[in-house]
Structures are given as C-alpha cells and as structure tokens.
Amino acid sequence: MGALVSVWLPGDWRQADVALYRTDALAFWGHLAHPSLPHEYPPLAVIPFALAAIGPPSVGQDCFALGMAALFVLGFVAIRRWKGSSRAWTYGAYALAAGPATLLFRYDIVPALMALGCLWLIERRRFAATYPLIGLGTLVKLFPLALLPVTVIAHARAARGRGTGVLIRGLAAGVIVCAVIVAGGFALGHVIDPAHGLGAITYNVDRPVQVESVPATLMWLGSLVGVPAHPVYASVSYDLVGSLSGVASAAGDLALVVGMLWVWWRQLTGRMDAGHAVVGTLLVLLCTTGVLSTQFLLWVAPVLAVVEGFRYRWLAVFLLTALIFPVLYQVAVEYSPVLRYSWWFLAGIGARNVLLVVCTVWFLISSGRVPAAHPAPSVGTGHVPSEDRVEPGEPEPLASLVTTA
C-alpha cells in the first residue's frame, strides 16, 4: 500500500530519472540514422528506456511505471513457481520495502531479475546460457559482471571428474563468450556513438563519493571529529567530498577486493554454495562501492529472498533505504541558496549503512558448507545434459587441489 501511495506523492523525484530515460530513448530510437547512446548507462539500457518514449511525457512516465510493475509481478510469479509462495512473498516484501519510490520509476528491477535468472541457470547447471546472460546483463547495468567468477567456480565444481583439459576448455569457452558479448556491445556502442558509447565506464571513473555510500558515511563520521567534508551536486547525484575522500575510497576498494576474494574462496573450497556466493558478491559490492543510490538495493532483493528467505534484519535495511529516499531527501536536504545536508539526513544514511554492513558480515560468516555430493536437479520433464551432471561420490579435483595447496 505504501508503494502504491508513493506513486502519487508530490515531488520531482518521480519525473527526474524517467525524464532522463525518455531523453536518452528519443535520442537513440528517434534518430536511428544518427543515434545517440546514454552518457552514463550501458548501451542496452536504451531497451527499457524505450517505454518512457511512448506518447507525450506524462503517458511515457505511466508506460514506464507499468512496464516495471509488470516485470516486478513477473518476478513474483517466477519465484513462486521456482521456490514456493514463501520466497515469492519475501521477494515482494523486500522489493516494495526498499523501492516504493524507485521500483516503478527506475529501471534497476530489470538487471536485478537478470541476476536472478543467472542464479536460476546456475542451479540447473545450464552454464552455456549463464555466460551470455551475464554479458547481456552487463550491457544493461554493469554490476552483473561481478557474477562471472561465481559462475566460473560453480561451473568448475559441477564439471568435476571430467578431466583437467576438458574442464579448462569449458571454463575458457564460457568466459570468452561473456567477454565477447560485453566487449562487442561496448565496441559497437562506441562505433555508433563515439562520444557516449563508453559512457557507462568513463562516467564513473572520476565521480565523487556518493552521499548514500558506506565510504561517505566514513567521511561523515570523520567530520564529527573535525575532518572537514562538504556536500556537492555532481554527476547528477548528491555527493560528499573532503579531506578523507581518497582514504574512504581506498578503504572501500580494499574492502571490495578482500570481500570478493573471501566469497569466492569459500565457494571454491565448498564452504558456500553458488546461491550464497551470488548474494554475498552483490552485498560486498553494495557495501564497498563509492557510488550507491537508493535503487541499487533492488539489485539484491530478488536473490536474497530466494537464497536467504525472510529475515527481519534485511527488512529493516530495506525500510531504512525507503526512509532515506524519498522522505529524507525531501525534508532533510536544503537545496538553496546552497546545498546542505542536515545531520539527521546523514545519520539516517549512516544507520542504514551500519546495519547493511553488519548484516552483510553476518551473512558472509554464517553461510553453511555445501553438501559433499548431491544429485543434479531435474528441470520439468527434461533432463540435465550429461556434461553438466554431477554424480554422488565423484572427486573434486579443483577444490581438492586448492585445499591441499
């Protein structure tokens, strides 16, 4: 009900991003002879953006919102058939709690469901389809590329006992397919529009620390003890800059590397299954990135619901995210004559970030060990191809080698 009411709440937060999507869509689809790509999004983002280009601006906004709502419902139906009603309702609760203001007016549910599709394929050992889906997801929003190592490790564990040469060739083929799709997509985008074809990459290189990120919370805590930090509006986002900008960003980068390696190591050695590795990878990314917007929490909502189920602690994280945007943005930020963040705006963000980090650490250290052997799952009335089938009692040469080393 809160999500439905938010659709009609006053404020320009609903129109801002959709208006940008519409401009980008018209610049591409309306000028196919000389198309222009989005300057901050990957090339395939123009596909969901096309919904915002239908009719006049007011109609386009409604069409875009209806399209995102349809995808959200489709995700609910798919999870219900896959994991049952409990996980489907958990997905609904998480997504609606995190994104009453962003679920319908941002396009992040699209790559979030693509990441969910990757997990579905991994569980069914359909790796030939997983690698292309990761590549396509990267061309919609960059974050699905982080799932490539998880897929490679899951593929290696599923193909155990087939011989080192066969294993290496299979893994290399999958990685190459993904790399060709990503590189080819950006290369084609650069040919079509040299000014913006690589915008999703170049746009984020020199961005300041976004105010909602964990590194920004570290900078705010530093400001409480006298290290200066001040707000800026740059790169179409609200940011925080100061003396600790470099240190906070470096700390985030270090935590990203350590966190990712921890997740992938636990998966490689059999202490974490692929589902938990997918969720852990996305959570580490959210906790360490210097560019964190409210809608990014939607990335993890579907896979977290499927893997972890309902937890009050995660619901609290998502509800605090909804409190930040649009509520605190509307009432706790002074936009004129100069941009100012109230202390309780930054405190609200800090509370969400602390809880997010604590829940992520708890998730990473509490994920149980993968069973030593389990039968390959059946899919409907079909069968799992023989090259992906895992028989109980087969050796695990890759994990055993790593563990021995």
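The record above closes out task 2.4. Task 2.5 opens with a second protein, given below.
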Amino acid sequence: MRTPAGSECPHFYADFQRARHRQECRLIDRTPGAGHWTPDLCARCPVPRLVMANACPHLMLEPRVRVGILGLGRRVEITASCTKSLETVTEPEIGCSLCHADLGRLGENWEVV
C-alpha cells in the first residue's frame, strides 16, 4: 500500500472507507518496544527500499523508533536478521550469504528445453 510519503510499503495499512480514518505501520505497531508510529516517520523510513531490494522470505526486519538529540528528529532504524542462517544481516539490501548460496545452486540445476 502507498504510504503518506508516496512509496510502496507492505507493512503500511490505511483505511478511509465509510468515514474511517485509520493509518498504521504494522511492522512498528506489532513489534514490542519498537516505539510509537506516526505518519511523518514514513518519509525517511528505510523499509520500502529494503523490501524492494531484497525479497528473501527469510529476512526478518526489527524496527525501532529513535529520537534525535534534544528530542528532535524521530527516525526509524532497522536491524535485520536471517531466520535460515540465524545471524544478524549487516547489509539488509543484499542479505546473508547462506540464502544467496542456495539461489546460486538452484540456477545451476535449471535445464533449457
């Protein structure tokens, strides 16, 4: 769904039907201790870019809303981990090395008919 910032995010939900005005980030709202979501966080959120760059089903994103110096400038920070290799992913755009190795093996077994 399209966020208030204009990017596509699978974790954003909005409902404006029948006089409802409901917006939520299901990634932040459903993660305990992540913080409180507001629509202004979507402008600099890295999640839409990460999801577009890496579609690995084993990538788990853990959000946290951070407040800047003197309480100004809230932003979303993402920590990524892989459920298959059980390790922290340092570059979520690329993913972990184990999932990429499996994709390489799948490509070797394809036959041209």
